[in-house]
């Protein structure tokens, strides 16, 4: 299985267009918004999430280019972890595909019809199929782990029950390769340690480095618990994800752990920052856009 990281930043990307903080002005490598493509054979590809940057991401990755027929594309469908705008706006950009299957948790399918009517809009451009997050993507096997009840701001008045956010475990029966994708984690969820067992790659929520980051020097004045309300576990700290990774590594896990969905406030974006080194020393990766893993 090939896993291609199309984008690795949180909503707004890096640098963020409306931000003049030191990090956004630092010249650190830009990152587009979180999105992944997976393929069993390198011919047909499935997107996991559809970022607003999807057009540029497709053009930047030859594996996703159109061809060989004049209107043939290698993208076979889209799997969504949640209904956030940074993970779903790309569906509008994909309208020229003339229809693709889209798999998502039921609450997400509801939000994209009843709170933000993307489905109605793009159904007018072709035969889209809207399906509950399934058990397969072609020959790849998919399992789903509900991870949080955090709904998008635009769906805050929805009374539909979650889960609103899930993680996916994707297995290639031909190679035994396992990829776990969890770009939005409010906490380290129940059952997650088992869910990642034997994974070759776990791509995790790296939105924030520290628990108080959004109230720090680069911030917009939101309160300390805003990050938790936003549904993102920090990397560092007592309740952070890096400690969990360390525990897996101490137990002998050979999994590659990598962070995605990095917010523009996250100091790990700067390769010269001590926080970047701390993550790397703890055995986790901070891959750039365009990084590919083979599992
Ligand atoms: C999130 O990851 O919390 C959301 O994408 C925030 C947003 O609306 O940009
Ligand atoms: Mn997001
Ligand atoms: Zn900034």
Automatic annotation (TrEMBL):
The keyword Iron-sulfur does not apply. One of its GO terms (biological process) is pyrroloquinoline quinone biosynthetic process. Keywords: PQQ biosynthesis, Transport. It comes from the Bacteria. Residues 45-242 form the Metallo-beta-lactamase domain. InterPro entries: Metallo-B-lactamas, PQQ_synth_PqqB, RibonucZ/Hydroxyglut_hydro. May be involved in the transport of PQQ or its precursor to the periplasm. Belongs to the PqqB family. This is Coenzyme PQQ synthesis protein B. It comes from Amycolatopsis xylanica. The gene is pqqB.
